[in-house]
Amino acid sequence: MAETILELTDVFKSFVLGAETVEIIKGVSFQVQKGDFVVLFGPSGCGKSTVLNMSLGLEPPSKGAVKFLGKDLYASGGEDDRAQIRKKEVGMVYQQSNWVKSLNVLENVYFPLTLRGESLEEREKKAINILKLVGMEQGAYQAPTELSSGQQQRISLARALITEPALIVADEPTGNLDSKAGEDIMSLFKEFNDQGKTVVMVTHDLEYLKYATRSINMSDGLVVGEYKKDDPRLKKMSVSKRGNISDKLKV
Ligand SMILES: Nc1ncnc2c1ncn2[C@@H]1O[C@H](COP(=O)(O)OP(=O)(O)O)[C@@H](O)[C@H]1O
Ligand SMILES: [Mg+2]
User: Fold this and answer.
1) Top-level class of domain 4-250
2) Distance, CA of 250 to CA of 248 (rounded, Å)
3) Which of 66, 144, 146, 210 has the smallest count of CB within 10 Å of its CB?
């Protein structure tokens, strides 16, 4: 049996907004197994990022359990334990790359290893190697901000992979990219998943469901559908939505 990386069981989340308590997540359960490429999709505002943040130990649920590598993230241990798990076991890619501006591409990519105290020689070797895998070794000595958005996302992925985490998490990684650069970065995620990396990605773009081994549809704080790769219902969904840009405009 495949190892379970992440397990959410009947998770709820409420936020207090002024005098009101608003329930944003209304009982979400799903699992991520080793080797999965899970795409969590649904309209803007349905709660995808909130689910990711709870999964990463960044936001305690109001009710329900989140297990990461078998450990209940919020039942025992505090912020420090959760931060340690993130540092060790998770690689993150966001819509907007976040760079240490005084460092070049190579130094940014090996920054997570700098925090671990690895030798300069080790760090450089690993960073060059991973930059080659994302096709960005020629930019190693440039400032990240000199590069295009698509190139910066490749470098973000390299930085996420360098610690060999158990899970790669990406929240709308194509959000700032044109469709060509979007497909390029998605193909890279797919390549790494084919090599055994476990990925959870959030998107509101149905075009990208084709890369997933499993797609989870969220709507208004609930999981309303879960589909295996090549489920014909997925194809129908992405075709019927094509040309409808209202979802994209809401981001
Ligand atoms: N920290 C917060 N405080 C209050 N409301 C929040 C907070 N985070 C998210 N929300 C609300 O929860 C809903 C879901 O947000 P989010 O998880 O970011 O959705 P998605 O990622 O699917 O676009 C939105 O209505 C948002 O305004
Ligand atoms: Mg979001």
Assistant:
1) alpha beta
2) 5
3) 146
